[in-house]
Amino acid sequence: MQIDLHFHSTVSDGSSSPQDLAKLCVEGNIKIVSLTDHDTIDGTSPFYEAIGGAAQVIRGVEISCSYGKQTVHLLAYDANLLRSWGRVEKMLVRQRQLRAKRAELICDRLEELGKPVDRMALREKSKQKVIGRPDIAMAMLNAGYCRTRREVFEKYLGDGKPADIPIERLSVFDAIDCVHSCGGKTSIAHPHQLRDLGGPIIKECADKGLDGLEVNYGPYSRSEKDRWLKVAVEHGLFPTTGSDLHDTAGKHSLGMEVTEEYVDGLGQWLAD
Ligand SMILES: [Zn+2]
Ligand SMILES: [Zn+2]
Fold first, then answer.
1. Radius of gyration from C-alpha coordinates of the chain
2. Which ligand neighbours the alpha carbon of 192 most closely?
3. What is the number of domains present in the chain?
4. Segment 22-40, tens digit of pLDDT
5. How far away, in angstroms, is 111 Cα from ligand 2 center?
6. What is the dihedral of CA 126, 128, 129, 133, to 10 degrees?
7. Of 127, 157, 187, which marks where a domain is finished?
8. Among residues 104, 129, 157, which one ends one of the domains?
9. 20 to 30 Å CA-CA from 135: which of 59, 154, 157, 267?
């Protein structure tokens, strides 16, 4: 069976609307789906409606949080769409406010550096979606300051560069607690991105109640999946599955094949 519990829409940094993604899920016969935009669940309702009962929709979100200086992407899920996620939403609103504030500070800094960008366009954009560094990078490309996104990050926006403004961060432990208080489940996304800190972070999070680990990550090879499955088993974490698709026009597509046995385990994990 095809399932997919991690992908992004235009509500965060994906290329397709929630409705278009729903259409692709239905066409691809993907049976369990979760739209996991960054720090927002605003896409969930339109996505759910557009699915129209053709697949099981799990409410989801990918929360940007931190462990010390390390960024951790925490996936949160809930199979019960009727349950209130008020506390999670409040936490996400605060995250978005912090990001918007940071974007303004980055614009201030860019102005000081003699590289002003179209702030009004960014503000307008932020009404519909979560604004992040990629959006500012796009504004810089539009203004003709650099030729590639990579150049923007290397010269201005990347870590330690002149327009790198640190963001006030949410601790991964607080995020896990908040999701649990609303009855949801948590899983650490694309664990390889934690690099050397992966071991201690996963262990500590597991000790503090983390529920899953994104073992079946779209870009992983068989051996990488095996490696992360070992880690998940070691810490009693459920191996979640997701493509992390952002660009539906790219070479990757939605949906990953899993066994019936896996689907049973997922159902139990979500219902626990
Ligand atoms: Zn991520
Ligand atoms: Zn993602």
1. 19
2. 1
3. 2
4. 999 999 999 999 999 999 9
5. 31
6. -30
7. 157
8. 157
9. 59
Q: What are the pLDDT digits (tens) for 203-243?
A: 999 999 999 999 999 999 999 999 999 999 999 999 999 99
The letter for the amino acid at 249 is A
Length of the chain: 272
pLDDT at residue 265 is higher than 80: yes
- Using CA atoms, how far residue 174 sits from 28, 130, 209, in Å, is 36, 21, 11
Distance 89 CA to ligand 1 centre (A): 19
Alpha carbons 130 and 100: distance in angstroms, whole number? 8
Query: Does one domain contain both 6 and 107?
Result: no
pLDDT tens string 108-137: 999 999 999 999 888 888 777 777 888 999
Instruction: Read off the tokens for 100.
Output: 């918007």
Q: Rounded to 10 degrees, what is the CA torsion of 17, 35, 21, 141?
A: 50
Inter-residue contact 126 to 103 (CB < 8 Å): yes
